[in-house]
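One such shown below:

_____
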Amino acid sequence: MSPRVSVVIVCMNRPDNLCPCLESIERHTTLSHEVLVVAYLFDKAELVKVKSAFPHVSFIESDQIRGFSENNNLALRQAKGEYVLCLNDDTLLTEAMIDKLVADFEKLPSDAAILSPAIRFADGRLQTCGRPVQTACRYVLERYHLCSNKSADDTVGKLPYVDAIYQTSDINGACFMIRRPVFEELGWFDERYFFIPEDIALSTAARARNYAVYVDAGVNVTHFHHQSARRIVSATKPAGMRGFLMFYARGSAFRYAVLGVFVWLAEWLKYLFCAFRCLFSKEQALHIRKQTYAHCLCSIFTRKSPKEIFIKYYAR
């Protein structure tokens, strides 16, 4: 018999993140489910230990450079559940989130395709509770710190559809549930992107096909934000910036050029300020930030794909 839910997790050699996440799933889930973990660039000895500790989990080894989309798709194509829960390895369940989200789907109309919980930081602050439509204008303003890219509660001022369930527009890829047949219809994650904005591209594609996206403000998951990616930010950020510009340009070279100019100027100003500070400080984090800004500047007007950009700077 097929499980109700397939939980898909990508973990880039972080057993310290993965093990607590897997334990929390086991502790708080009663519905029939399968867990598929993509062990990305994992140390072989560490992988043996994790497999031994979690014999019920299916591990898929990924030993080549792959992005968020490619790695998730390795597992998604093997998923058998009626629903798929995409979950970051740096998350922790503190309640029966999976059971509750499945129960929520049964209350929603047939066009409901994607549902997410409220995602909270480790200190309890809200990271996202649904997301309004993410626009190119907002993205540019964020680069100049003229618009907040922090916590977003898309339920404010809205009436719930039922209970604490609200309709929203975009999702946070750290945690969301989707009907597997819909996910398959959409072609899984778009592999043109490497690190971001796969989640926004997915919900945008779903809405374009008249599917609806919801969030349950009464269900929570804890996200230890950026814990997995901070060590390779000088490679992930330029790849992500290139991906965002591709997404918002929507295939238009002119639109890309206009957006690119505004974003390049913002990153150039940040680079200059950071380079000045580096003259008087040997702080490692500051020098990494300077290097990251430099990589972003080189990645905006390039023919390289987000994946090629990541490989270039990850190798360094």
Summary: The longest helix spans residues 253-278. The chain has a mean pLDDT of 95. The longest strand covers residues 212-223.
